């Protein structure tokens, strides 16, 4: 039987649980909350927190044995006894002095009524677990997770800025080339009349078109601004999932845009991938 699923216990089951080797403290209190029975784990925890093991003959009420903060536990015990139903009390903080130093510990308790053969409540059985270390590890994990999220966000900003800087450099470089070579090409077109010469000038113009803004070249194919933005991400090697995250749209929308782009670029029915086309045919885009 899982103790966390039991609504109540019998006097016989109390004996069995106290004698069993379980990793949590098992303590039985009578109706007046006097410490009556406990297991070895309870004794080990008492020693860990520099508290003596009580004597059965002393009949010590539990609320006199614990720090003042344990009043919540006492209320929960009364509720379990009087309402005849189990009560769970998570992460109760207790403050104590150890070697002159204030120490905080955290405890999770499960309290259930104990019934005799006639069904009368004769006490409360408590399962008490020290969760101090577990909570400490959870807090450390939360701090690490937050640091990782902050670093990830900072890295994303740096990558975006780097991409923007690279794009700006390419565009500035292309603009400069356009400004310096465009007049020369116009002059060449006017003096080159032969077929081979005109073919050479046309090839030069196509090469020069490589440095035009990608937005302008893709727009000539009838791509919308959104499709242009998505096509540039495809060309840079972003996956559909990464594009969806970057543009805050669903993967289905990304796939739909990709199909429209392929159709407008004349790739429908072809085996060539959109990424390969955009990268290898860049001079014509």
UniProtKB/TrEMBL annotation:
SMART domains: HTH_LUXR. InterPro entries: PAS-like_dom_sf, PAS_4, Sig_transdc_resp-reg_C-effctor, Tscrpt_reg_LuxR_C, WH-like_DNA-bd_sf. GO terms for molecular function: DNA binding. The keyword Magnesium does not apply. Keywords: DNA-binding, Transcription, Transcription regulation. Residues 214-281 form the HTH luxR-type domain. GO terms for biological process: regulation of DNA-templated transcription. This is PAS fold-containing protein. It comes from Desulfobaculum bizertense DSM 18034. The lineage of its organism: Bacteria, Pseudomonadati, Thermodesulfobacteriota, Desulfovibrionia, Desulfovibrionales.
């Amino acid at each position: 039987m899982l103790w966390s699923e039991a609504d109540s216990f019998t006097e016989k089951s109390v004996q069995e649980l106290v004698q069993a080797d379980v990793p949590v403290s098992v303590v039985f209190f009578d109706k007046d909350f006097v410490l009556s029975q406990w297991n070895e784990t309870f004794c080990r925890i008492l020693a860990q927190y520099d508290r003596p093991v009580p004597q059965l003959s002393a009949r010590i009420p539990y609320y006199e044995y614990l720090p003042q903060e344990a009043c919540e536990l006492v209320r929960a015990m009364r509720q379990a006894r009087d309402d005849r139903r189990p009560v769970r009390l998570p992460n109760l903080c207790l403050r104590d002095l150890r070697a002159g130093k204030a120490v905080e510990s955290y405890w999770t308790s499960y309290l259930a009524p104990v019934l005799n053969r006639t069904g009368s409540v004769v006490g409360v059985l408590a399962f008490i677990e020290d969760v101090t270390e577990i909570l400490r590890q959870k807090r450390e994990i939360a701090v690490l997770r937050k640091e990782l999220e902050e670093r990830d966000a900072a890295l994303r900003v740096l990558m975006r800025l780097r991409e923007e800087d690279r794009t700006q450099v390419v565009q500035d470089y292309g603009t400069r080339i356009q400004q310096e070579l465009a007049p020369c090409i116009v002059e060449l077109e006017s003096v080159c009349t032969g077929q081979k010469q005109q073919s050479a000038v046309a090839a030069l113009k196509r090469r020069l078109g490589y440095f035009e803004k990608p937005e302008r070249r893709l727009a000539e194919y009838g791509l919308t601004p959104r499709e242009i933005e998505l096509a540039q991400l495809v060309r840079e090697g972003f996956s559909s999932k990464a594009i969806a995250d970057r543009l805050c749209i669903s993967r289905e929308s990304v796939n739909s845009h990709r199909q429209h782009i392929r159709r407008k670029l004349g790739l429908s029915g072809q085996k060539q991938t959109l990424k390969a086309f955009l990268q290898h045919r860049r001079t014509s885009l």
